């Protein structure tokens, strides 16, 4: 009776293992700090122990588990299960994680990048339930994405599909972390919003944004911009509108290319709600083609903090 | 023994029906002008007769045919098989083409837009053979596209996926046929290349482009630009480079979003060959992310004039 699954969520600061039933109900969970400075072998040994812990907590044996799903920062190769130097996991260079887990537990293991796994979780358990074509977009330190079509992750040639934050909108625009200029990420990520706000604040020191950042320009963050906009600050409202314009432009392109039924936005878009979503929707309506635009909804993602666990188990729960 | 298939290729000026075996070998073909000004019923009656004709020519009966594939300009609904007012087929408004064909022949019929059907044909029989993720892009009067993943067309919510020519690159750029400004199509289609050449030629009347157009600016077409570039004309070379830059920028975005193994370009890109493809490849190398860029080849499509027939039969031939 292998009626249960295990999920492993690997982040740069936290590790989590969960055991769940086949309906996606999380039964037990163990969390530990990644201590990424101690390198990959330390973290993997921790994880293997945490899998045993969560099994013990659930009163389950290895034979009860049909699969292990692992959600981890990319790049990685889903076929071989090898991790290739994610920025948040120093030293995880060509780490054969799937093999390491399978040789320990003899349970089929699927490794997936966190954006894709989260997209699948939203498609199965969250805001994408009931939709055949789901586009999931993160909007925080970076802008990433995952494409789910008919219940399956769209991987692309080498597991890179869904890098929606690196469509270039302004080739002469601000530098992006990827080395290009004017990517959607360089225009709409949290740090990008903060940078634009810092530049604007220098000329308008009376803005409420600056007051919220204790009067210090270098402390201005995207949250201050959103709060100041809610408080009616004109500069903050203009900055939110600008961000929504770029985000809407990028999403309009994606709507034309991918024709999703639903675009699910997380993090900043969830925190900001309609303050950001309404002008994004307006821009998409203005810039996307009529037929694909009529077919799409733009909504906040639904799973919140539980997404990491559900992302991991989504990989090994059948439809 | 239903070992044969029928393909129907519907264009604004020409209709074709073919019968093929299950390996994709075209056995017989019938062609007639669409006479689109006579409306959809005239054309459909012609087509039904042409199906019978091609069956007769092949010495086949209806029972020998396992499926009918129809490649037609979109928009259309692949589930219902209804055609919704393609620009090149006036009066084809909510035309239930699948139902009309099936009620006549009692053979399962699949209707698909021509860009998607052509993408599938290239993936099965042409330059995309052996690749799991194929992106096909037309580059002629307009810029369209089709996405094939693991041998299947990626349709999207309402059969609009692959409108790659309508990603917006320059919102303040030239007007596009879709009503937006600065779409890839408005920058790189044949008429867009001609328009840019006409504008530039007005200030540089000594260019070879103008000589090739009999000295008349309003006769300048994209072919003249390509020929003049081959002849070493500096203005023409600059125009080709500019076109390749926009095309490469758009493809780089698509490489990041879709992570194809191969991008197949047709029409102008085939005619121009490396004159256009080399600078396009250079721009993609400069603008796309490293991992997806390393996984992709950018090549001319292979099927040439036979694509219409193969597009139609691809829809009803198994893998």
User: What fold name goes in the CATH topology slot of the largest domain in chain A?
Assistant: Nucleotidyltransferase, domain 5
Radius of gyration of chain A: 21 Å
> What is the helix fraction of residues of chain A, given as a range?
40-55%
What is the CA-CA span between the terminal residues of chain A? 19 Å
Number of strands of chain A: 13
CATH architecture of the largest domain in chain A: 2-Layer Sandwich
In quaternary terms, these chains amount to: homodimer
Largest interface, chains and sizes: A-B, 40 and 40 residues
- Supply the CATH class of the largest domain in chain A: Alpha Beta
Strand order, main sheet of chain A: write it out: 3-2-1-4-8
Number of domains of chain A: 2
Give the overall silhouette of chain A: globular
For this structure, what is the CATH homologous superfamily of the largest domain in chain A? ATPase, nucleotide binding domain
- Contiguous runs where pLDDT drops below 50 for at least 5 residues of chain A: none
How much β-strand is present in the residues of chain A? 15-25%
**Structural class from helices and strands of chain A?**
alpha/beta
Average predicted local confidence, pLDDT of chain A: 96
Q: Determine the number of helices of chain A (DSSP H or I, runs of at least 4 residues).
A: 12
Instruction: Specify the biggest β-sheet of chain A.
Output: 5 strands, mixed
Order of helices and strands of chain A: EEEHEEEEHEHEEEHHHHHEHHHEH
């Amino acid at each position: 009776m292998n009626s249960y699954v295990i999920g492993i969520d690997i982040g740069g600061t936290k590790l989590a293992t969960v055991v769940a039933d086949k309906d996606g109900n999380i039964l037990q969970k163990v969390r530990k700090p990644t201590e990424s400075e101690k390198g990959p072998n330390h973290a993997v040994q921790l994880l293997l122990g945490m899998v045993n812990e969560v099994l013990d907590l659930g009163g389950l044996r290895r034979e009860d588990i049909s699969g292990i799903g692992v959600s981890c920062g990319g790049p990685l190769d889903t076929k071989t299960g090898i991790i290739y130097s994610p920025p948040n996991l120093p030293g995880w260079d060509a780490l054969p994680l799937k093999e390491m887990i399978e040789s320990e537990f003899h349970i089929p293991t699927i490794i997936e990048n966190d954006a894709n796994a989260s997209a699948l979780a939203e498609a199965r358990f969250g805001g994408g339930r009931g939709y055949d074509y789901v586009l999931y977009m993160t909007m925080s330190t970076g802008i990433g994405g995952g494409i789910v079509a008919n219940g399956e992750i769209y991987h692309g040639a080498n597991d890179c599909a869904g890098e929606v934050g690196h469509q270039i909108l302004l080739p002469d625009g601000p530098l992006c972390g990827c080395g290009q200029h004017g990517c959607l990420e360089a225009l709409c990520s949290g740090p990008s919003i903060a940078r634009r706000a810092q530049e604007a604040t220098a000329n308008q020191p009376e803005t409420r944004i600056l007051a919220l950042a204790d009067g210090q320009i270098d402390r201005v963050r995207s949250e201050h911009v959103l709060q100041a906009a809610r408080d009616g600050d004109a500069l903050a409202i203009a900055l939110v509108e600008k961000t929504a314009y770029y985000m809407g432009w990028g999403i309009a392109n994606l709507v034309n290319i991918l024709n999703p039924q639903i675009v699910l936005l997380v993090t900043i878009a969830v925190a900001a709600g309609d303050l950001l979503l309404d002008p994004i929707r307006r821009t998409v309506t203005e810039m996307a083609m009529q037929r694909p635009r009529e077919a799409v909804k733009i909504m906040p993602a639904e799973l919140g903090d539980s997404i990491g666990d559900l992302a991991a188990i989504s990989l090994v729960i059948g439809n």
